[in-house]
From TrEMBL:
Cross-referenced CDD domains: ACS (cd05966)
Biological process according to GO: acetyl-CoA biosynthetic process from acetate
Organism of this sequence: Govanella unica
Source organism superkingdom: Bacteria
Main EC class the enzyme belongs to: ligase
Protein name: Acetyl-coenzyme A synthetase
Length: 649
């Protein structure tokens, strides 16, 4: 088996899948030539309170306006719950697998979940949360996280889920930015047997930031039973409040364009931005892609291992699967606890049919050898998926051969927080697979590869990836900063959405994502702006200046390499290195801690004072032969000194 091998569509799948090759071509062509007609029909998969008559109203120029199904009204939670009650009320909606295999799992039916969501919606209302208000959700991977999202949707509140791995500082910044008055958290989270002090973190965020003083309610889920402080008046227990209210809450009628959620993500400059998604278009797109990309069939058990703190958890654990009436497995733990067989044992335990994870997890598990996998059956598996970063062919082949026993196609799904759902991916009944390629665009998606000047390239080409036309799942704006939205995504290449990714198209029209072309790094599938890590470092009193770049890392995909110039009179040491790591952990979270940190008395700068990151990237990559022209530097000698003191892996 070689990386250049092509894996054809299995004949049985071509015959039974939702979409085969001929149908793909027919529908793809139609979706581009008649987007109104195509998306108008597809939108009918949802239950609308007032049906839409206008399908698409979008423009990528000027002020950039993106509206889908504009005059329709609906409720997202009713689409994910209520409408399934008559046909599959007793089917499991969420299968919850806890951190420890010793703890009993939970199976929550659609009917039970409807009751839970209604109660929580009533609690939110009783605490004064209204339509349009923002609610911050800072929870571990427990069913209450999904209840909280849907309870917000039910009353028209806008949720902002903050990943449980973010620090109090990062949480405070996100609460402040969207002005949320209510935080839903739990006593603690649990990951790999270790407690995560979520409530204590929330307390710290709220007590040290005056700008969060508007938070009137902290709702606390009892999860581990760990001891927490409760601030009278502000903090209430989730279970106690839910016991006081009715299990019925009529869904609010929302416009298709009303915001459903904000999700913060990193960019190449400044603070994380609040990506804002709509109600109608987002749900249509999440549901359709979930059904077609995973070829989901009624009754199947589907498992996406992402955290609900990331967009993958939003679209492909909660919204897409539940809108489709699927059984969605939610896993609290980590792939290597109690041992490297955890994923595969859980697949056998719950008879999982479709499994969706990230390349970083695959690489980490691949390192443990085949036996943790082959000691399990995995006979229930039918389809595998990958998301979050480019998957190297070696990891792809191992995933296919060992995890999928050579039987299961792999859908390598390329998308972003901003896109709301999958844009480029195989449809498993339609596309032959090439390891490492996300293959072809989904319906309605028109990828364009441009050169540095913005000239679209035809045929076989490599350049920057843009999308020429809108799709319903596209983000609508950056919360509170539409100007930044326009500048970030629509000003580099006029009239097109710029993804920030590099991409190659081969002779067969297959797309190969080559990674970010901006100052964003992708560490273990977690997106991080180098500027954010830099500003965390320079906030330390001993740091004068910092420059952060990504470098190739065997397991994480990319690692974080930091060059730090200290204040006059400060001395670099291992102790200071550890202090700075701790500092970044507090400012942002563990995922932002540099893997390698080099004390650099000088950084390579142009005469106008701009740091030449290209050179820093090359040094971090150990690629000294290709430093390029360094003659324009203010002090070219800096480069040799950086090379001499490079940190080793
Ligand atoms: O660089 C691409 C990479 O992840 C970025 C988006 O990160 P985020 O918004 O956190 O969303 C991740 C989950 C959708 C992209 O710009 N990326 C995501 N999926 C792939 C990928 N790179 C290559 N192949 C993929 N399948």
């Amino acid at each position: 088996m070689t990386a250049s091998e092509i894996f054809p569509v299995p004949a049985e799948l071509a015959a039974s899948a939702h979409v085969n090759a001929a149908r793909y071509q027919e529908l793809y062509d139609r979706s581009l030539s008649d987007p109104e007609g195509y998306w108008g029909e597809v939108g009918q998969r949802l239950d609308w309170i007032k049906p839409y008559t206008e399908v698409k109203s979008t423009s990528f120029s000027g002020d950039v306006k993106i509206r889908w199904y504009e005059d329709g009204t609906l409720n997202v939670s009713a689409n994910c719950l209520d409408r399934h009650l008559a046909t599959r009320g007793d089917q499991v909606a969420i299968l919850w697998e806890p951190d420890s295999p010793e703890t009993p799992h939970r199976a929550i039916t659609y009917r039970e979940m409807h009751g839970e969501v209604c109660r929580l919606a009533n609690v939110l209302k009783a605490r004064g949360v209204k339509r349009g208000d923002r609610v911050t959700i800072y929870l571990p991977m427990i069913p209450e996280a999904a209840y909280a999202m849907l309870a917000c949707a039910r009353i028209g509140a806008v949720h902002s889920v903050v990943f449980g791995g973010f620090s109090p500082e990062a949480l405070a910044g996100r609460i402040e930015d969207c002005g949320s008055a209510c935080v839903i958290t739990s006593d603690e989270g649990l990951r790999g047997g270790k407690p995560v002090p979520l409530k204590a973190n929330a307390d710290q965020a709220l007590s040290t930031h005056a700008a969060t003083a508007h938070v009137h309610t902290v709702l606390v889920v009892r999860h581990t039973g760990g001891k927490v402080e409760m601030t009278p008046g502000r903090d209430v227990w989730y279970d106690e409040e839910c016991a006081k209210v009715a299990a019925d809450c009529p869904p609010e009628e929302m416009s298709a364009e009303d915001p459903l959620f904000i999700l913060y993500t990193s960019g190449s400059t400044g603070k994380p931005k609040g990506v804002l998604h709509s109600s109608g278009g987002y749900l249509v797109y999440a549901a359709l892609t979930h059904e077609l990309v995973f070829d989901y069939r009624p009754g199947e058990v589907y498992w996406c291992t992402a955290d609900v703190g990331w967009v993958t958890g939003h679209s492909y654990i909660v919204y897409g699967p539940l809108a489709n009436g699927a059984t969605s497995l939610m896993f609290e733990g980590v792939p290597t606890y109690p041992d490297a067989s955890r994923f595969w044992q859980a697949i056998d335990k719950h008879q999982v049919n479709i499994f969706y994870t990230a390349p970083t997890a695959i690489r980490a598990l691949m390192r443990e050898g085949d036996s943790p996998v082959t000691s399990t059956s995995r006979a229930s598996l039918r389809l595998l998926g990958s998301v979050g970063e480019p998957i190297n062919p070696e990891a792809w082949l191992w995933y296919h051969r060992v995890v999928g026993d050579g039987r299961c196609p792999i859908v390598d799904t390329w998308w972003q927080t901003e896109t709301g759902g999958i844009l480029i991916s195989p449809l498993p009944g339609a596309m032959a697979l090439k390891p490492g390629s996300a293959t072809k665009p989904f319906f309605g998606i028109k990828p364009v590869i441009v050169d540095a000047e913005g000239v679209p390239l035809e045929g076989e080409a490599e350049g920057n990836l843009c999308i020429a036309e809108s799709w319903p799942g596209q983000m609508r704006t950056i919360y509170g900063d539409h100007k930044r939205f326009v500048e970030t995504y629509f000003s580099t290449y006029k009239g097109m959405y710029f993804t920030g990714d590099g991409c190659r198209r081969d002779a067969d029209g297959y797309y190969w994502i080559t990674g970010r072309v901006d100052d964003v790094v992708n560490v273990s599938g977690h997106r991080m702006g180098t500027a954010e890590v830099e500003s965390a470092l320079v906030a330390h009193p001993k740091v004068a200046e910092a420059a952060v770049v990504g470098y190739p890392h065997d397991i994480k995909g990319q690692g974080i390499y930091a060059y730090v110039t200290l204040m006059e009179g400060e001395e670099g040491s291992d102790a200071l290195r550890a202090e700075l790591a701790k500092w970044v952990r507090q400012e942002i979270g563990p995922i932002a801690v540099p893997d390698l940190l080099q004390f650099a008395p000088g950084l390579p700068k142009t005469r106008s004072g701009k740091i030449m990151r290209r050179i820093l990237r090359k040094i971090a990559e150990n690629d000294y032969a290709n430093l390029g022209d360094i003659s324009t530097l203010a002090d070219p000698a800096v480069v040799q000194s950086l090379i001499d003191n490079r940190q080793n892996r």
